[in-house]
Amino acid sequence: MSAPAAAPVLEARALERWYGPLPAVRGVDFALSRGEFLTVFGPNGAGKTTLLRMLCGAVRPTRGEVRVGGEPTHGAEDEGWRRRIGLLSHQTFLYPGLTAAENLDFYARLYGLRDRGTKVARSLESVGLLDRRDDRVRTFSRGMQQRLALARTLLHEPEVVLLDEPYTGLDPHAAALLNGVLEALRDGRRTVVLVTHNLSQGLELADRVAVQVGGRWVSDEPRGAVDAAGFERLYTERVAAAVGGRAA
Amino acid sequence: MRGEPGASYLAQVWAVARKDLLLEARSRERLVAMATFAVLVAVVFSFSIDPTAVRARSIAGAMIWVTVLFAGTLGLGRSFALEREADALTGLMVAPVERGALFLGKWLANVVIVGAVEAVIFPAYALFFGLAWPAGSLPALLAVVFCATAGFLALGTLFAGVAAHTRMGETLLPILLLPLLIPVVIFASSATQRLLVGRPVAEVASQLRMLAAFGLIFLFTCTALFGSVLEE
Amino acid sequence: MDTTWDSLAGVRRWSAVLGAAATATILYGLWMVFFWVPTERTMGIVQRIFYLHVPSAWVAFLAFGIVALCSLGYLWLKDPRLDAIAVSAAEQGLVFTTIVLITGPLWGKLAWGAWWVWEPRLTLTLLLWFIYAGYFMLRGAAESPERGKRFAAILGVVGAVDIPLIHVSVNWWRSQHPQPVILRPEGATADPEIVRTLMVWLLGLTLLFFALLLARYGAERLGERVETLRLRGGSRRPAPHSQGVSV
What we know:
The structure holds three protein chains of three kinds.
Chain A: E1 8-19, E2 22-33, E3 37-41, H1 48-55, E4 63-68, E5 71-72, E6 85-88, H2 100-110, H3 116-126, H4 142-154, E7 160-164, H5 172-185, E8 191-196, E9 208-213, E10 216-222, H6 228-247
Parallel strand pairs in A: 3-8, 3-9, 6-7, 7-8
Antiparallel strand pairs in A: 1-2, 1-4, 4-5, 9-10
Chain B: H1 9-27, H2 29-48, H3 56-84, H4 88-94, H5 99-129, H6 138-164, H7 172-180, H8 182-196, H9 205-230
Helix pairs in contact in B: 1-5, 2-3, 2-5, 3-5, 3-6, 3-7, 3-8, 5-6, 5-9, 6-7, 6-8, 6-9, 8-9
Chain C: H1 9-36, H2 50-77, H3 80-111, H4 120-141, H5 145-175, H6 192-233
Helix pairs in contact in C: 1-6, 2-3, 2-5, 2-6, 3-4, 3-6, 4-5
């Protein structure tokens, strides 16, 4: 059942995406093994979201490929790899007109889960929303919606969890709560990719830190090699250098 | 850890349709808007027709189908607005759902909702214009209504998805749809009209065949093309 | 997208060659219409508009066929060149359906006594015109140029599937209604001179269509390059049309 630790769970090979004449992601390469947590920092417009959307199969790469469990995802006959991935964005992907339980039940049906009732209840409990299960999502606060979105992401127990600016719009309390759940994701079984422009979040959780500017990775280091205090200065320098280099 | 077999194609279609119907059952906004609009159109028709010049009974088929298409188009625009509210469409694209199943699910929900509106339109016209279909023609009428609606909404659902991703949004929908729907207009109104005036059911067989063919062709074509609407 | 671009010199050369041939053919055709071909007996002088009307209809449908094929190809292969051909053909289609819709009633007023008659082919052309119009509206209104191309291609394919169905239904609809007594053009005895003039025009307009198609295709491709250079060059200036780059 358990793959050898060395086998990468999620891989990007020379990944590129162009929108017409403009590059969004250029030549991104990485391989993550089971349990690894990667954080990709980058300024607005660096192509982070596009990168994440290619990883989860919502956007088609112009060149290169994504592999999940060693198998290329694009053009795969069997869409089973999609069940191994969960995406959490700052958009919740929820239907405000449905209740919390109905939203999760809908996704449980799409993912073809057995025992939907129990799984939905357990999932609601894990994010502390069980008592609001029959309330419509429209009545939820932003923080509660984001927690429900997190429950939706993890409902089918994905091995790979992709997080796209999950802190957007959260107050410090809700952000701390989210941090707690993300911390719990680091159980050694899940592979996580977090993209954000916010240096204060995501650095502590990461095993590996990359910086993306103008679609390219300008740095990719293990967390140990990065000095938390000096990272901000380092990041600013690298972004400035990369942007300057492009303009020249 | 992963013993889940995944949802079958039909289960996916049903999950999507069920979700749309549940949302509609909650808000009833599309249903109410479409039905009210349809009845209003019937009222407007009755004011705009000169009863000394033309008998409503001889143009009822045309009026009914114009109403169905306009009211249906009005509600179709919302079909994808639901998905874009919190970007749920992206959630669907990431999920292991066949694009075709997604389309058929939304189509099915639209057929049920527009079917409910038609269940208001026909009695409303019967009431306002004193129409009565012969009892024996009812199964044929239902078949005509179903086939015409199926074809209309195959194109309608596809282009509602397209229009949702444009700046003009729902304004564009009737402009794209109406020229393509001419076959539905022609065959459905003529069949409805003939059944109304009590012509034998066999006389609408060719119209019914054409409507069924139109429905099948576009259900197939649009299911195949829907992936191109979504992909990025 | 590569920085090395295929040369458009060939496209321009062929466009010029075809354009010259088209001009010569159409000038010859004009001479035939005004000085050579005899006046058709039953319809009189107004029949001469047919030399423009019928070949325009042919070109309009040819354009639609090209739009449909290239649209299908574009959805399949995502090659921007196919989209450039499709949009160029659609533009010609819009122009030539417009010519058909103007010349048809001009003739109809004199032959049928009415500006507009729901003659099946004229009706089909009218619907085709609406589909072409929708094609351009859709392209312009899409959230990003890439989406616009894809959506227009979808309409191109759906339209191609629908046109035969519309044709069948309009014919059927006509057969159900009493027809006004009209002089059918094909009912008239076709003199060899008339047939020959029509053939010259058919050739002339087809050549013109391909000349314009190539010229338009070249312009479309050139426009894309200008856009590319503009977007890449001005990294300090904000790009006003950078929709589609949702990063």
